[in-house]
Amino acid sequence: MRLYVARHGQTLWNAQNKVCGITDVDLTEKGQKQAEALATVVAGKDIDLILSSPLRRAVATSEIISGKCRIPMKIERRLIEQNYGIYEGVDRADKAFLDNKRNFAYKYPGGESQIQVAYRIYSLIDELKMEYNDKNILLISHGGVCRVINTYFRDMTNEEFFQYRLENGKLEEYEL
Which of 76, 81, 88, 112 is catalytic? Predict the structure, then answer.
C-alpha cells in the first residue's frame, strides 16, 4: 500500500502568511492552478481513493483532482487542520504563536495541541492500513496535518518537526 499526502492549493491567508487552521477559506486563483498541476502529477500514480479534509480549500483541491483523474473521493473529518485557537488569522511570524508551536503537548488557547492532532492522524493511518491494505490512497489535507503525517513515517527531532513544511499543492509519498 502506498499513501500519498498532498497539501491543498494556496488560499488568501496562505498568501498573506496568516495562521489558518480550522478557519474555512477558499482557494485563490493560484491555488486552483496548483490543484490542477497536482492533478497532473496524481494522474501518473495508481491511486484508488482520495480522502479529503472537510474544509473548503481541501475539498476544492480534491474535487479538481477527482474530476481530472476520475478517482472517487470521500470526506474524512480527521484530516481537518489543527485548531490554532486564539492564533487563527495572526501572522505566522507572531512570537507567541511560534513559542506555542514548539510546545507539542501544549494546547493552543481555545484550540488543540499537536499531540491531539497526532492522536487522530495516527489512528486514521492505522485504520487505513487495515481497511485499504491493497489500495493506494491520496490524503488531501493541510500543512500542520501533513507535518504530523510525516512523523508517522520518519523519525524527526523537535527542530526538524518545527521546520518541516509541505508547500501548497505538493505531494509526498509513503510506503505502508
Answer: 81
- Do β-strands 171-175 and 2-7 pair in parallel, antiparallel, or remain unpaired? antiparallel
Residue 160 annotated among the catalytic residues of the structure: no
pLDDT digits (tens, 9 = 90+) for 33-91: 999 999 999 999 999 999 999 999 999 999 999 999 999 999 999 999 999 999 999 99
Number of domains in the chain: 1
Q: Are 65 and 138 in contact (CB under 8 A)?
A: yes
Q: What is the span of the domain harbouring residue 28?
A: 2-175
Q: What is the CATH number of the domain that holds 33?
A: 3.40.50.1240
Burial (CB count within 10 angstroms: exposed 0-12, middle 13-18, buried 19+), residue 40:
exposed
**Rounded to 5 degrees, what are φ and ψ at 8?**
-55, 165
Q: pTM of the entire structure?
A: 0.96
